[in-house]
Amino acid sequence: MNTPVFDQARFNRVRWTVFWTLIASYIMVFFHRMVPGVVAADLMQAFQTSGAALGSLAATYFYIYTALQIPSGVLADTLGPRISVTLGGLVSGAGSILFGLAPDFATASWGRFLVGLGVSVVFIGLMKSNAVWFSDRQYGRIGGLTLLLGNLGSIMAAGPLALLLVEVSWRSVFVSAGLVSIVFAVLTLILVRNRPEDAGFPSIREQEGLPSHPARDQHWLRDLREVMTTRAVWPGFWVNFGLTGCFLAFAGLWAVPLMRDLHGLDRAGASLYPTVTLAAFAIGAFKVGWISDRIGRRRPVIIAGAALSCLAWLALILLPWGPGWSGLLIFSLLGLTAGGNVVVYAAAKEVLPARVAGMAIALVNTGLFLGAAVMQPAFGWVLDLTWDGAMREGVRLYGRADYLNGLWLSFGCALVALVAAPLMRETRCQQN
């Protein structure tokens, strides 16, 4: 019997179709995550909220996202990315539409809850897909490319959205984003396959002349227990908590108000700074993933990122920066260093068998979103502690001392990552 000829060109077409389809949904994840920062004043005015309440509304996304990371890993390792990402897109789309139409704070909170519920499965599904459609030696670079492209959603939710809001209402933006999410969910169901074998191809390892990773041979609860009891995974949880969790909390909600209140910038001008820091985050993730694969090491790259992140927060607190090149430089450094978290996912995946890659990635990703969920309202809470009562058009105005409280809190969060980073196990870019 003749062995079928492997069609490399067709395989590459299918592989990249799967990748780009999932990336489209992932871009919307970042958009949904970061958009409250640009419309913060509109939300305060529409729902008459304090800084702490606004932080809680924005962080509702992170609360449910955090809680569902481990279940998302289970879904990625059992049902596969095709079904989990499709369902997630439908739910997040409905939540965004509800948020845009919300008549009151409670309804808006439910809409934000549904958005977080839906998008919680996308990143884990995408990284699980990357693990089976690309080789181990490419994983750092593909992970970096994933975050680079996903951050296009963050960038669109900053400066470009601020310009768009001159012409359209914030409510129209959320309704439109919901409809786009639903379209991408339908495309995922049509175009994505969970693994090469589902599309008629041999596995990546078979293509490389290696035996396939063993298939799952036990109940997912036992797999989950294996992941949760592996001590080598947990330092990555805390690195993500401190390195990127506090960064996303700041860039996604408090950066625009800070530039508005302390430097008198309008929304479009203030939005330039989170746009720059998120673009730097995307570039940093791509370059750091490439560097890690190139040198064949994980831990030194993670330690360097955590240390530089602490320095970036200190620069934001202590240096006499302002609008212009000095502010853009510090915001860029903050984003570049946070991008080092992409290597954490690779290291977590590599300390455990490939069959539980989704759960391992989910565990360390939980740390990131726990950090963001804690820091968004905590930042607002410390602002409110010393607020002097100043308001403009129904929006609270905070002073320099108020924002320094939040920035020192963020620096303390970054120190958690610096302490945890040296505890990570070096995998030398090789799958367990």
Describe this structure in a few short sentences.
This protein has 432 residues and is mostly helical.
Written overview of the protein:
The radius of gyration is 21 Å and the shape is globular. The protein has one domain (8-198, 221-423): Growth Hormone, Chain: A, CATH 1.20.1250. It has helices at 8-38, 40-47, 51-67, 69-78, 81-101, 105-119, 122-133, 139-156, 159-164, 170-191, 204-207, 220-228, 234-263, 267-295, 299-318, 325-338, 342-350, 357-385, 400-420; strands spanning 391-392, 395-396. Helix 4 (69-78) packs parallel to helix 7 and helix 13 runs parallel beside helix 18. It is an all-alpha fold. A hairpin with a 2-residue loop joins strand 1 (391-392) and strand 2. Strands 1-2 form a two-stranded antiparallel sheet. 75% of the residues lie in helices and 1% in strands.
Strand percent estimate: under 5%
**Level-2 CATH architecture:** Up-down Bundle
Task: Write down the CATH class.
Answer: Mainly Alpha
> Helix coverage percent of residues?
over 70%
Write the layout of secondary structure elements.
Elements: H1 8-38, H2 40-47, H3 51-67, H4 69-78, H5 81-101, H6 105-119, H7 122-133, H8 139-156, H9 159-164, H10 170-191, H11 204-207, H12 220-228, H13 234-263, H14 267-295, H15 299-318, H16 325-338, H17 342-350, H18 357-385, E1 391-392, E2 395-396, H19 400-420
Antiparallel strand pairs: 1-2
Labels describing this entry:
single chain, 432 residues, mainly alpha, Growth Hormone, Chain: A, two-stranded antiparallel sheet, 19 helices
